[in-house]
Amino acid sequence: MAIFFSALIIHGIQPGPLLIKQHPDLFWGLVASLYMGNALLLVLNLPLIGMWVKVLEIPYKILFPLILLFCLIGAYSMNNVTFDLYVMLLFGVGGWVMRKFGYEGAPLILAYVLGPMLENSLRQSLLISRGSFLIFVSHPISAIALGFAGLLLLSNLFPYFKKRRQQYDEFKE
Q1: Cβ-Cβ contacts under 8 Å for 16 (sequence gap 6 or more)
Q2: Which of 110, 87, 139 lies closest to 5 in space, CA to CA?
Q3: Relative orientation angle of helices 82-100 and 60-79, to the nearest 10 degrees
Q4: Structural domain ending residue among the three candidates 42, 57, 72
Q5: Tally of structural domains, the chain
Q6: 117 in Cβ contact with 9 (< 8 Å)
Q7: Which pLDDT band holds residue 32 (cuts at 50, 70, 90)?
């Protein structure tokens, strides 16, 4: 949903309750495409359910190279440049490392999509305030939002401190 909202913002459409009023063609087109997509999935998947069960029985040792092959073909066929293959492999290794250490990929993709807009807004704010970062805490709404974001960041440390306290209590006994 966040990626969909960011795509709307990129195209200059403000998501929210006024979307139906300001862009009814987009809204009803989306609703119609969801209905059509569900109907097509129902029509296609009911007769093919046996085939999908057979696909699930394919061993990972066979399925993984096939998926990798199709990804390489798709990456190369976009521009016919081998650099695209290296980029795909680099991001694949990056995704594997993120999964290995328990990181989610969706926030990274969201940051990649929304990052340029965030930079432009930061630049505009700093131009308005003549380079002063106090503009972000001088208004109550932005100060509360920044404080809440800071608390959310600090909340990640609570399990660490709890674990350390438990270790200390065990050591003390």
Answers
A1: none
A2: 110
A3: 140
A4: 57
A5: 2
A6: yes
A7: very high
Are 105 and 98 in contact by the 8 Å Cβ rule? The answer is: yes
- Considering the domain boundaries, does residue 53 fall inside one? yes
72-106: pLDDT as tens digits = 898 888 888 889 899 889 988 988 888 888 888 77
Q: Is residue 44 part of a domain?
A: yes
pLDDT of residue 33: 92
Q: Looking at residue 13, what is its pLDDT?
A: 82
Average of per-residue pLDDT across 142-158: 85
Q: How far apart are CA 20 and CA 24, in angstroms?
A: 5
Q: Is residue 125 part of a domain?
A: no
Query: Please, are residues 146 and 137 in contact by the beta-carbon 8 Å criterion?
Result: yes
Which residue range(s) make up the domain with 160?
137-173
At residue 148, the 3 state secondary structure works out as: helix
- Please give the model's pTM, rounded to 2 decimal places: 0.46
Total residues found in the chain within this entry = 173
Residue 150, in any domain of the structure = yes
Question: Confidence band (pLDDT; 50, 70, 90) for 173?
Answer: low
Q: Which of 31, 57, 83 is the last residue of a domain?
A: 57
The encoded tokens of residue 108 equal: 């990274």
